[in-house]
Amino acid sequence: MATMSAPVEQVLHMTGGDDETSYANNALITQKVMMRARPILEESIQKMYSTNLPMTCLKVADLGCSSGKNALLAVSNIIKIVDEMSDRLKVETPTFQIFLNDLFGNDFNSIFKSVPEFYERIKQDKAEKQHGTTCLINATPGSFYGTLFPSNSIHFFHSSYSLHYISQAPKWWSDEEAKLGDDEDNNIYVTSNSPPSYSEQFRKDFNLFVRSRSRELVLGGGMLLTFAGRYDTPQDITAPGLIRMILNNMVSQNLIEEARLAHFNVPFYTATENEVREIIKGEGSFSIERFESIKTSWDGSSLDEEGIESFEDDDERGEFVARYVRAIFEPLLKVHFGEGVMDELFLRFKNKVIQFLPKLVYNAFVISLVKIA
Ligand SMILES: C[S@@+](CC[C@H](N)C(=O)[O-])C[C@H]1O[C@@H](n2cnc3c(N)ncnc32)[C@H](O)[C@@H]1O
Q1: Considering only the top CATH level, what class is 8-371?
Q2: Which of 209, 211, 156, 144 is nearest to 41 (CA)?
């Protein structure tokens, strides 16, 4: 088992590979949110592209790309949007230089293996259209909380479902707050209980993120950021909050050592719209073109549309949610509690999900920014 004090940057990663338990096979929710955010991406890219014309090489970075289909999904959408727009404007499509960024422990190898097929697809589109679309994929490992690229070098940043990870986890709850659990009405108080140190860490990190991207973007460059934001009720339930609750129960049943739990903190924070707006405004070089919220229930059905999966019953629903949450959090949990308790933990997680399902809602912020100064 790794030490408890391993820095977040070294231990945080999604489950790699492409088997049943991998993030690659459990990323349907983020795909769905990306689909729903597509019109805002389109608007954002169109603005950036028209401001920067003429252009021979368009440099785009996807921050927190992870592995699996989603790693190249945003890139592929961006290429399509620019390609179509170039046709409409009767200008030549630029060469795309794409930088895929994630932390050092990310499974970049599995992305690299999918690049030939990706290039092939782009080439086929090219043959159909008679004019060239060249795309060059690069990898830029490292934390997005800090410098990743030279100054004035990037035209567009995209980041999906990554900025709610803060760079380090302060102690999660005070002892009193650690007595988390269900109350008589089956409410769970999670996000509203996170102590100020979490919001301070977010403020520090997000501010550094915005400053770093501002330096690296060309004037008129754009960013589309999608990440988990605070839902507007005090009883906001998050996946790490639910996990924490189950860990508490497992400690009380002597299945997990109390000392291990005391040192376990998840580097995850859901900010409010005001917190995010204030930091962007304070930094001063971006205009906020759009600030939207997309709400999706944990089993993938958005609140106003059909779901992405058809489930026989609540058991299947719970299983689906437990599988993708496991792909996201298991690497971090294993480091602290060992592999031995993972099956039990996620079985309990599944049962909690079934119990709370109608209340489980993700709120994703979709924010489109343009560098104006
Ligand atoms: C839930 S995945 C999202 C993956 C993909 N963008 C999607 O939408 O499906 C979040 C990713 O953010 C990465 N991440 C978290 N903090 C990061 C940081 N400081 N720098 C770079 N990547 C980070 C994680 O390693 C993880 O791969």
Answers
A1: alpha beta
A2: 156
